[in-house]
Write a structure and sequence with these properties.
By secondary structure, the chain is mainly α. The protein is built from 7 helices and no strands. The N and C termini lie far apart (76 Å).
């Protein structure tokens, strides 16, 4: 009989220790539901911009390869055209690098919530939004400039190499 009671106590202890961790986390949170909602909204807005432009990295790479291939394979390319290609490729590479640099430096929301106060998290996420908006603008502008130069130069080597 004692063994059964002991086994039930152990089972009850394990069950309560392994309870719903999400419920426990929300009741133990140092943030109100409103604060958590604001933080999540800012995070989601940040990720929305990231998700909008991240797929455009492949377009940046394709444009860069097209321009460099044109520069390398076109005999008699004017010095001015070659200089334009070099500048646009630098712009494309910088836009590409800025996205990956931003991603590598971004702090995830959960660790921030574990270590920071609400005001600091909001400030950080707003600053990151500004950085991401700049990354987006740089990427879109470099794609536009690269596409315009390809059209202007009449580049026909559109295959990805």
């Amino acid at each position: 009989m004692h063994k059964i009671v002991f086994a039930l106590l152990i089972l009850f202890g394990l069950t309560s220790a392994c309870g719903d961790s999400s419920q426990q986390a929300s009741s133990d949170s140092k943030f109100s539901q409103e604060q958590l909602g604001e933080q999540q909204k800012l995070w989601d807005e940040l990720m929305e911009v990231h998700d909008e432009v991240m797929p455009k990295i492949s377009k940046i790479h394709k444009l860069s390869r097209q321009l460099l291939n044109h520069q390398e394979t076109t005999s008699g390319l004017a010095a001015e055209a070659s200089q334009q290609i070099t500048e646009i490729v630098k712009q494309l590479d910088a836009a590409d690098e800025s996205m990956f640099s931003w991603m590598n430096n971004l702090q995830q929301l959960k660790p921030l919530q574990d270590t920071e106060k609400h005001e600091a998290i909001v400030k950080y996420l707003k600053a990151e939004q500004e950085k991401m908006d700049k990354v987006r603008d740089d990427m879109l502008n470099s794609i536009k400039d690269g596409s315009n130069l390809i059209e202007e130069l009449g580049v026909t080597n559109t295959k990805a190499q």
